[in-house]
Amino acid sequence: MHPVVAVDLGGTNLRTAFYPQGAPPAERIHRFSLGVERGPQAVVAAIGDAVRGVAPAPFPAGLRVAVAAPGPLDPFKGVVLNAPNLPGWKDIPLRDDLEHLLGLPVRVGNDANLAALAEWQHGAGAGCDHLVYLTISTGIGGGVIVDGRLLVGGHGLAAELGHVPVVDDGPPCSCGRHGHLEAVASGKAIARRAAELLAQNPSSTLGGAGVGPLDAEKVGAAAREGDPLARRVFKEAGEAVGRALAGLLHVFNPQRIILGGGVARAGEVFWEPVRRALKAEVMDPAYLEGVELLPASLGDDAGLVGALVLANLP
Fold this sequence. Notes:
five-stranded mixed β-sheet, globular
């Protein structure tokens, strides 16, 4: 195993971690706020500085760098094709730029794919060779492990599970299409749907003084306290996720389904409708036999751990 600096590149924050033994736990983890509005080259330079800041100087022998980055991207060439939350990130050769900057070997992977890799190797998916992972947060991403290998597809674009269509003529998605899972069950979608219903039913506790702008965390708290409007929103979101998971069961026949992200941490107001819809939508009960539906266990470190695993893959 090689020493690794893992990088988790988000829309507003950058996290780096140094793994001297090429395995968890990290010796150091640093977090920085990113000025993504400055453009790709400034962000690449910031990543370079962050790697130097977390790794020992001089760099230890055999040091590798791996980056969990927003997709879609080409993991074979290390090119970010189009990152909606990173202004100006269109066809950015992130791997080559960082290798030139640092003089180190660099690998780049889709952040949600790498979170799946992390959960499989070091989290809730350990010991399982067939799994489906969804992260349900501001947006929805995912990853699939088949026969003990991360599924990336012919061009490295596989497993954009948040963009499975679930509602005909549904609300607009971040990708510009309509009715995708992300458009109806992500954190942003939950906040938007709650605001729509609140306009029709201002008596909800979500409309009370001091609540402020709605987000999925506030809607989830109200749902757990029994607010009917909030519970309806989470029921709709959970059922959408359950229907999508039924389709994924038919395609991949996993042994385990793992759900991560802030929405998945909302509790039974989310998990109960997921389980109910999943059971109702599978075409045969055989698809549910032996399948475990579990919460992710790595939390915010999933991207870093996934990048670590990527760095040491053959």
